[in-house]
């Protein structure tokens, strides 16, 4: 089944075309009011472990290895992955993240995992 997944910084304004909005960070993004986030779900359990997040440090040179390690974590995190897949079965989902780097972040890696898994 092909899922309709978008990825977006939580700092961008919500749009009707976002579908269900799911924050996939373990830590709430600084400067965002919960009422303004228009979240369907905050699924912090699907975020990378603190150890992996700190190791990665948003270093593009560690991106490929980060994705491999995060996939291993996701494979072991069946409950959170199943919860997100259930939301995806209902229609379009926008995965939200707080990082500055739009190309190298856990939401991008998670979208790739969900599309390929």
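^ structure tokens above, recovered residues below v
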């Amino acid at each position: 089944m092909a899922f309709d997944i978008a990825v977006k910084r939580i700092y961008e304004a919500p749009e009707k075309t976002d579908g269900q909005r799911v924050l996939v960070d373990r830590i709430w993004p600084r400067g965002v009011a919960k009422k303004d986030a228009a979240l369907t779900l905050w699924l912090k359990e699907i975020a990378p472990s603190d150890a992996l997040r700190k190791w990665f440090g948003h270093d593009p040179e560690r991106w490929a290895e980060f994705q491999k390690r995060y996939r291993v974590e996701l494979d072991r995190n069946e409950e959170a992955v199943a919860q997100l897949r259930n939301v995806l079965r209902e229609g379009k989902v926008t995965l939200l993240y707080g990082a500055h780097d739009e190309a190298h972040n856990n939401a991008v890696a998670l979208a790739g995992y969900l599309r390929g898994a």
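Strands lie at 5-9, 20-23, 41-42, 93-97.
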